[in-house]
């Protein structure tokens, strides 16, 4: 029977391909599974203090061109191998972009970059790219924004982030409680730390909520809780990467019964959205690490083949340059990561002297 009260503002309803169908067409390979498993284990060991290395989540602000993403991954996997004694390098592979008002929402939502919103194509493109990168031996990290997305790609993700706009969201905390990988929660856009700490505590608990099964049916999901969650300092209302900010966050965490540790995002508000300031932020973080601070377990850096950013719609697009936030260019990224690696080695030597 027709209704005059339902879906009045829905202009189209298209059937979504199911996660089971996508995973059947693009199954996880043994090589990819090994990369994911080893990446998750390494990150967990760093978070629990069993490994003194530092996690480095590095890569483009967002993926808009899978070809340039693969080129970037080839460079990064070589650097990962070179710095493996000090850094656990994870490639930032972001397919979903939160928007304050409007704009391109990422490769899954609009893979054609043209407002055609071919989402079925987007989820397949995302899974294909994640398989390629993992098969190189390079673990990946992503931000989960739409709560349906993990069923399509989460088996290929070693680390996940919940963004500043969604850290306070109950459904994202519930989702994180069921993810199979470690998860970082960013502080709020205005710098609020407590919402990130509350998110870590909430995600560690079991939850029951509505979601989607692998065959695309509505389902009730029950989770065991995720003990591998942590806070990411990303600035907001100013910067918060300095030693005093780390002390403040860790004091709050300890008082809340959360592990006093932190990952620091060198981009976003911590760099004033100026990609060229990221090395300055990382240099400060490196000094804290070299001075012996073990509470800093990781960093994030936005990096691409070509520095800066361009606007979607520019013709032709510059190959290997971000169409969202500006990124640090490849050569400068290598310099910054090598400097961070030296800081970890200095901290290690300091600990050996103390132990002796």
UniProtKB/TrEMBL annotation:
UniProt keyword annotations, A-Z:
Amino-acid biosynthesis, Aromatic amino acid biosynthesis, Transferase
What enzyme class is recorded for this protein? transferase
Q: Which reaction does it catalyse?
A: D-erythrose 4-phosphate + phosphoenolpyruvate + H2O = 7-phospho-2-dehydro-3-deoxy-D-arabino-heptonate + phosphate
So what EC number does this one have?
2.5.1.54
Report the GO molecular function annotations: 3-deoxy-7-phosphoheptulonate synthase activity
Q: Which InterPro entries match?
A: Aldolase_TIM (IPR013785), DAHP1/KDSA (IPR006218), DAHP_synth_1 (IPR006219)
Summarize the protein's role: Stereospecific condensation of phosphoenolpyruvate (PEP) and D-erythrose-4-phosphate (E4P) giving rise to 3-deoxy-D-arabino-heptulosonate-7-phosphate (DAHP).
Q: Which PANTHER family does the record match to this protein?
A: PHOSPHO-2-DEHYDRO-3-DEOXYHEPTONATE ALDOLASE DAHP SYNTHETASE, PHOSPHO-2-DEHYDRO-3-DEOXYHEPTONATE ALDOLASE, TYROSINE-INHIBITED
- Please report the name of this protein according to its UniProt entry: Phospho-2-dehydro-3-deoxyheptonate aldolase
To which species is this protein native?
A: Mesobacterium hydrothermale
